[in-house]
């Protein structure tokens, strides 16, 4: 069966649980947003993901992107689906109207990409990179570059890439060696090899716009010597005419192509999964490029959209988990094996396996993760919109603080669960889960990359604790957690435990701040457990929000909530215990010294 | 890099930690076993696995077993490696001398297969099924069948399969429909389709011996109507000569082939991994077969070796985890990325990632699992030998009890860790872990099946709690845990906590026994957490044994032990807490009713 996103579920979470339409309407660009509009957009997004993109998931995996002689052919049907995506205006959903976009909130784009990924992770990688490139150029490119590229990227007429990684420079971009030599005409010549470039070459669009991290001659070593460059696959206009000032025809009026830039796709990787997305090795042979933003500010230009990009990846984890859940849930209703405990069948008869507690517990537990993570991710998406558009700087600041703290937590938590949870849902299929035809093992293979890209989950944890929590002595996160705790309804069944967990997370943070003063390395030892503890405290809060909503007593919501409280949230205590053991050890070591 | 098993490590655990040679020498068939002999066998096994089998792992995955027109061609090199394996006498390592075997202890065969699986899981599936078939025929087949088949299976001249699963009958073998119609000559005709048959067709041996679960006409529905049958790929001697009494030439003198039996390989499955092992759909078109054992006793004949087979799968998990660990450890020493906390490098320089705490913690934690699980599995292997060969029935009984209780725990614990731990070790490689060339992602894909086959891990948990612990009111496992607790050295640093955990597991068992009397379905709700809790209590005990041994203070052992105590064992409290919540809920439900 193909994934079919449940728009009603998403609307329920956004409206009834999170009151998102009212929050968005308070922002000037979204004054027109209401439940109807949101519902229409999401219904249409669910239809597109489920009917157009999902049916191509299996062929995308089985055939994969094919490399031959420098060219990449996308799997059958991918180009048509991309054309339909573009024609329907989906790429520009959240782009600014002045760039040809529809100017809708980021959170809706987030939900769209959650669903596209659940439907077909490989296909979704192609348009998935547009949004970062758009924001990056919008904020940092010269007017000339914007005029040439921004509209075409916003509309999805041309796709984009992010060329960061090199063989010796992965998590450590400071080691990037690609050279960018300035030319008399203001352009640069790029030389070097980039690896792991998603969509570095394909046949979906006429042109591909590469954003490339490189080092100018004389730049200092390390990350501060890096600048960002734009290098298109085809040059606009053809080079050799002196200064590149002629503009191409306006977006949408067709483009007759240009001269090929010196960018060679050497091969594509053979990967565990995500076969529908070509992961390219690109060689820049003195390719013509233009700098985007200031020299030495390449990383900050590229990371302008870091929270949005990481939240996208978090939502990929949620989408893949939901797709796996739908498959397992459908299978468990059909598959007859063994009599359920307490059943009345005779020998040789069997119940649907959904009646077996081991299966039901897996379905309920993973459902609890999906729903709770959605609440957190959608709430964070709304905060992203508030941070960009609220009239009150204090509100923007507070929303930005939430995004800064919660995004690494979500990136790690959602992808860990997307991968691990899909694996547990595979187990529902028994041996049938291990063979290709049911499609569940593809989700497991595809999802595995999300723990790695856009900053490994280990780096998210260090980002949270070492870069964001400790520098202000924990003040930021403590005030955020306190505020959540104050909002808890302690008369609700899960109120006292939810509030206590949040308050304990505040104490835990204080203890870690103290202990880290005594032992600087502790942050790196403790980061993963700390991120996980914070994530679980937030997850409990998210479900408390669901529990206070209208339909919380329906089995649809009550069963996962029960599973969450019984089986998921106890991990908080375990993580807190591990962290406190480390804090005590740090204190003892200092005393002994 | 190819996996190279560490024979010295295994010898250390067997000799210094478990005192295995002395325990085995107390058994009549193994009076000659000493450290030297054990060391030689293991050195040779490590060499064979590392030098002959491991180099074929990547090609086995990339090329895979190929199906064409009913025939299966194994990947390049597999047949040669199998020939070398057979010529070296490895298949018969633990077979009885009267069947042409070497008569060595089961535990050494277990270690051999752990290493072969780490080296090349796909290849190892082929000989891996010999041992179950050998024991099954040895205990249940007629003298005539034994004379024709037993020696050839012991020597590995012919490989064997286990044909259990059908499309509608997976975990629930009671639903098997394959028919076995008795013939006047004492043979049967088999008709039906079996799926998921590992090695159902291949080109490694001249003949393949299928053991098939089927139902005779008039047999009752459900598992009690199933009998076991032997159906060879080639008939011995040719049929059509009346009674099949002529014996083939004695094993080892070559075999000219026979008439093809009516067994058709319809296709092989496309799987997530394990591509080197053909997973076949076999159709029996009135195939000629002979019953093995009594009518209606098919399942018990097949499960005579259940503990050994499940322990083999547990050791597969350990082998795959160790192979993944070796790869990640080697990579972490070579790969330079970022400055380690507290380091002194300048901008643009980088430390090997093994110096980063996030990497070190993964390596230490998974090492702790590998070593602790090895101690438990090797100890259980020795108990299997004692259960078979000890002169004292009470000793046999007690060893059998250990195997019966601990085997399902190990099958689940080791395979869960093999799969999940390999996934965490993949993370050490960053993006490079997701591409094929490093080989780590293959381990993750291959390992995933071990949670499913030979009884899913959920079925192991039910087997433990519902079938083994509750029926005797917990007496068996409580006495086993008590005895372990009594043996703990409470003067050791980890003594008090190890003993307390074992004693808490006794109390937890008592609480579950009580609560299950109040609420019969509880066992099925609680089984997975209970298995996990028991497994962690045993893991703590295993490391306590290592801690008391000679070299425990070396960093090789001390660092994983530290990781275990800090990060792994706290899960025991979490599981116990979840179980106690359920016990309280059950008691409250009874009071309310």
What features would you describe in this structure?
Two copies of one chain form a homodimer. With 593 residues, the first copy, chain A, is of the alpha+beta class. The first copy, chain A, has 20 helices and eleven strands. The first copy, chain A, has helices at 7-17, 20-25, 35-53, 57-62, 78-87, 106-119, 121-128, 130-140, 143-155, 298-302, 306-334, 357-389, 393-428, 440-447, 457-469, 475-486, 495-518, 522-547, 555-568, 570-592; strands spanning 66-68, 71-73, 159-163, 179-182, 188-198, 208-215, 226-232, 234-235, 259-260, 263-268, 279-292. In chain A, the strands form three sheets. In chain A, strands 3, 4, 5, 6, 7, 10 and 11 form a seven-stranded mixed sheet that branches. In chain A, a hairpin with a 2-residue loop joins strand 1 and strand 2 (71-73). In chain A, helix 13 packs across helix 14. The first copy, chain A, is globular and about 80 Å long. Chain A starts with 6 loop residues before the first helix and ends with a helix. At the A-B interface, helix 12, helix 13, helix 14, helix 15 and helix 18 of A face helix 12, helix 13, helix 14, helix 15 and helix 18 of B.
Give the amount of beta strand of chain A, in percent: 5-15%
Shape of chain A: globular
Tell me the structural class of chain A. alpha+beta
* Average predicted local confidence, pLDDT of chain A: 95
Query: How many strand units of chain A?
Result: 11
Assembly status: homodimer
Spans of chain A with pLDDT under 50 lasting ≥5 residues?
A: 238-246
* Helicity of chain A, as a percent range: 40-55%
Largest interface: A-B, 79 and 80 residues
Summarize the main sheet of chain A: 7 strands, mixed
Distance N to C terminus of chain A: 62 Å
The total of helices of chain A stands at: 20
Rounded radius of gyration of chain A (Å):
25 Å
